[in-house]
Amino acid sequence: MGQSVTRKPDFENLLKVLRRQVPDRPTLFEFFLNGPFYEKLTGKFLGVEGKDWLWGAFNPVVTEAFEAAGYDYVSVMGSQMKFDAKHSFEDVIIPVEQAYEKWGGRIAILGGIDMDFMCRSTPEQIRQRCEAILKRTAASGGYALGTGNSVPEYVPYCNYIAMIDCVRKKDPA
Question: How many CA atoms lie less than 13 Å away from 29 in the CB half-sphere?
Answer without folding.
Answer: 29
